[in-house]
Write a structure and sequence with these properties.
- There is one protein chain.
- This protein has one domain: DNA mismatch repair MutH/Restriction endonuclease, type II (ECO RV Endonuclease, Chain A, 3-Layer(aba) Sandwich), CATH 3.40.600.
- Helix content is 31%, strand content 22%.
- It is built from eight helices and eleven strands.
- Strands 3-4-5-7-9 form a five-stranded mixed beta sheet. The protein has a three-stranded antiparallel beta sheet with strand order 1-2-8, with no helix packed on it. A three-stranded antiparallel beta sheet has the order 6-11-10, covered by helices on one side.
- Helix 7 runs antiparallel to helix 8.
């Protein structure tokens, strides 16, 4: 049976290097007109899901899996592999665009990784099958640059070579979810897991999160107990919002041995020069 790393390697191998194959120019109508869709991040994110599907089907065929596809955006994951033993591997598609300062320096890259108050706590909520039926949770991440010179409006298909896409410079990574997860929420009034943030895509490619050192079990424990945005002030104060607070919480709940080990691992991770740019 293929390992999780075998599946990741197979996905990486299947995805094309040709930038043109990731470039969707617009929607076409029966009059052979191409309608530009602008730089709406939700539309572009959905397009990546559509484009990646045949490559995931190719991987499924190669590995002897079946490929499942979510029909509801509120149900996790976007895709899943069904193995011969009926165990599952989740594949979620995430995307974001590069942000630049006035001096044209790229800001830190970050994503949201879905909810932490649904299937992580209730194994049947907003998920295909049940959470405990998954052997791994993978993320295919896309980072792109919005194109300020993108074609707008309607173009004739005869002019397709002149159309400029809404985005350029697509970079891709395939990684296990916990290996890119961060210690903070991905957005304000939601219960979404955030990723690490880095100035380049490399930490996502390599899976350099502190949770990659701690392991998936710690990642799940951290986010299962992280306060929800609707929790009372008292509840939030009794929990934590970062790793140092989590270590203290472990102490308060009698898991001192575990907290000491994690503190030491975190200090070692933070002291590694390759992690300096990660927040």
């Amino acid at each position: 049976m293929p390992t999780t790393q075998d599946v990741i390697d197979a996905i990486k191998k299947s995805l094309p290097d040709d930038q043109a194959l990731w470039s969707v120019l617009g929607f076409i109508n029966p009059r052979k007109q191409i309608l530009a869709f602008g730089d709406d991040s939700k539309i572009i994110g959905r397009l990546f899901e559509v484009v990646v599907e045949p490559y995931l089907q190719q991987v499924a065929n190669e590995l002897g899996f079946e490929l499942g596809l979510s029909e509801q955006q509120t149900v996790y994951p976007d895709f899943w592999f069904i193995k011969p033993d009926h165990r599952l591997i989740a594949v979620d598609i995430k995307s974001t665009y590069r942000r630049f300062s006035k001096n044209k320096y790229a800001s830190h890259i970050g994503f949201t990784l879905g909810g932490y108050a649904s299937f992580l706590r209730n194994g049947t909520k907003n998920i295909y099958s049940t959470y405990d039926n998954y052997d791994a949770h993978l993320v295919i991440g896309f980072v792109y640059t919005r194109n300020s010179e993108a074609t707008v409006g309607i173009s004739d298909i005869a002019d397709i070579s002149k159309i400029k896409a809404a985005y350029t410079d697509v970079s891709i990574f395939v990684q296990e979810k916990y290996k890119i997860a961060g210690q903070s929420k991905g957005s304000g009034n939601t219960n979404n897991i955030g990723t690490i943030k880095a100035s380049s895509i490399e930490p996502f490619v390599e899976g350099q999160s502190y949770f990659s050192v701690f392991g998936n079990a710690v990642f799940e424990d951290y986010w299962r107990n992280y306060p929800k945005y609707t929790d009372s002030k008292e509840t939030k104060e009794a929990l934590y919002t970062d790793l140092l607070g989590y270590f203290d919480w472990l102490d308060r709940t009698g898991k001192n041995d575990q907290s000491k080990t994690l503190r030491d691992q975190y200090k070692k991770w933070r002291a590694d020069p390759k992690n300096e740019s990660i927040v």
